[in-house]
């Protein structure tokens, strides 16, 4: 890709690689989004990561080992995004991770995936986020505190290191428990609770 644009690509010895790239992409549902934008943004979010692996895996094969960490998002696990493209592309990365783990595990090349939640970063800060918006984001996770880039970085470091040498195909949310459920789930009604405990509805 770099060579095709007139540049010069150089592949060096690599034990680990963290593959992270993405754009919010084309907005709208399937009936409204622009197809050219869809193709462009899927190429950015998904194809680019496949191409990185295409060039790095041969170098890992020479060494007889390697660790690849693909970056996805909790949107790839949950969906529910105003954009159709973003969660679709992030979900594709999750399945690509699993497929690659199966394909390259016998070569001692591990492939895992990190799915960050809504962490607070300088880029997020630059988007005119109000204090109310920031608090609303925090309220969505079970720990009720804000994550940052270091939380994500530590997960990547773990998956790249010796501590995870027997882990491959893992999809790891780093989201304060957002994908685990809601702590403020409404309590069961008394009659529903009675039916659950006795097997008979309360009359």
UniProtKB/TrEMBL annotation:
Keyword field contains Oxidoreductase: yes
NADP listed as a keyword: yes
Ranges for region Disordered: 181-203
Keywords on record: NADP, Oxidoreductase
Any Pfam family hit: adh_short_C2
MF term (GO), any: oxidoreductase activity
UniProt record similarity statement: Belongs to the short-chain dehydrogenases/reductases (SDR) family.
Annotated protein name in UniProt: Uncharacterized protein
Record lineage: Eukaryota, Fungi, Dikarya, Ascomycota, Pezizomycotina
């Amino acid at each position: 890709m770099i060579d095709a644009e007139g540049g010069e690509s150089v592949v060096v010895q690599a034990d680990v690689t963290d593959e992270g790239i993405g754009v919010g992409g084309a907005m709208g549902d399937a009936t409204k989004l622009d197809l050219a934008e869809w193709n462009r943004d899927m190429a950015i979010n998904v194809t680019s990561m496949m191409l990185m692996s295409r060039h790095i895996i041969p170098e890992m094969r020479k060494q007889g080992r390697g660790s690849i960490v693909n970056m996805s998002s909790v949107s790839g696990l949950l969906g529910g995004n105003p954009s159709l493209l973003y969660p679709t592309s992030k979900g594709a990365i999750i399945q690509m991770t699993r497929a690659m783990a199966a394909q390259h595990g016998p070569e001692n090349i591990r492939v895992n995936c990190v799915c960050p939640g809504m962490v607070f970063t300088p880029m997020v800060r630059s988007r005119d986020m109000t204090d109310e918006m920031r608090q609303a984001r925090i309220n969505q996770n079970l720990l009720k505190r804000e994550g940052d880039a270091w939380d994500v970085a530590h997960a990547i470091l773990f998956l790249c290191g010796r501590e995870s040498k027997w882990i491959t195909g893992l999809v790891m949310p780093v989201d304060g428990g957002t994908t685990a459920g809601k702590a403020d789930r409404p309590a069961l009604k008394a009659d529903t609770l009675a039916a659950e405990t006795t097997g008979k509805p309360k009359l």
